[in-house]
Amino acid sequence: MLSQILRWRKSLIYVQRWPNERQRTMTSVGLVLGSGGLHAAAQHAGVLAALAEVTGWDPRRADVVVGTSAGATTAVSLRAGLSATDLHAYYAGTPLSDNGQIIADRATTPLSLNELPDSQASRRPANPLLVLREMCSTTRPRPVVVLAGLLPMGTRDGSSLGTRNAEIHPESWPELPTWLCTVDLHSGKRVVLGRDDVNVTIGPAVQASTAIPGWFRPVDVDGHRLVDGGVHSTTNADLVAALGLDVVVISSSKTVGGSAGSAADLSTLARAWHGRTLRREVEAIQRKGSAVLVLQPTTEELAERAGSDRDDGDLPEICEAARISALARLALPEASRARQLLSSTSESAR
After folding, report:
1. Residue 290 contacts residue 245 (beta carbons within 8 Å)
2. Rounded Cα–Cα distance for residues 91 and 38 (Å)
3. Which of 245, 273, 320, 350 lies 20 to 30 A from 314 at CA?
4. Which residues does 173 contact at the CB level (< 8 Å), separation at least 6?
5. Angle, nearest 10°, between helix axes 202-209 and 159-168?
6. What are the tens digits of pLDDT across the range 189-217?
7. Residues β-bridged to residue 31
8. What is the per-residue DSSP string for 178-215?
9. From the centroid of its chain, how far is CA 16?
10. What is the pTM of this model?
11. Cα gap 81→75, rounded to integer Å
């Protein structure tokens, strides 16, 4: 898997090295899909539908996809062949295409996220040493890592979620680079499945990337005890900075566009923190000359969302609101470069 990624990077470097010898016909695109539960999955579906509608770009062909938590499930669906239109239909509650329905029907395992018996649950912190590690670290503080160490082990089994994703994508891993983000509960370090030298298949990878601390049990993968990659960053967009891509599309559900609202709201404070992290990631990508398109909910959209991001009651509304919001964002002058680059990918594919 690692050699496959290196071959892809070499081919990308070749295309960029010889721009004067031939007309550049291939635009390199990175897609970043952030965390945020079912609300994020619906958000991604609406955003991708808008992008396909405006530019004709097919996210299934993205040169690299970075998925974190809910974004990991969307990444796998895309790599399994589910189109942006079908993803939107799935969350909007409308009929899928014939091919899309065939792919969706591959998942036959019932989703069961039951709590463990009280005898198997523990109230002890998962890893208190993470607090000390973060206090001694010279890098930017990561309060969510500290929280992951202080919370007890999760009481729910996410294996059925992993199994369903393995059924949707029967191959052990996608052919195109697909990076699913997790965090090692022992060291607090980010582990990128599909990029790092870790032996794993799609099912356990998705289960690990979605293992919310204090909610799901950590997942043992190749000597690592892994939890949700959102512990490190809700987007992990910095992973694509070094690739020098032409354009990077970021769909983020845990940040907010425009005013952040009252600082007294804890959820608003969290979004502000995640937003600062995302801005740093975007700046790192832009320093390499890439066009960056960030699509995130507005304060108005967030106000309409009910309950926690694990509630599925208003997914059709979230999906459609994200599509409309993304259409408006794509119409702005500052999105023109990214929009044109994405449009060029559909033209070269004809």
Report:
1. yes
2. 10
3. 273
4. 1, 194, 201, 202
5. 130
6. 999 999 999 999 999 999 999 999 989 99
7. 65, 249
8. EEEEEEETTT--EEEETTSS----HHHHHHHHT--TTT
9. 27
10. 0.88
11. 10
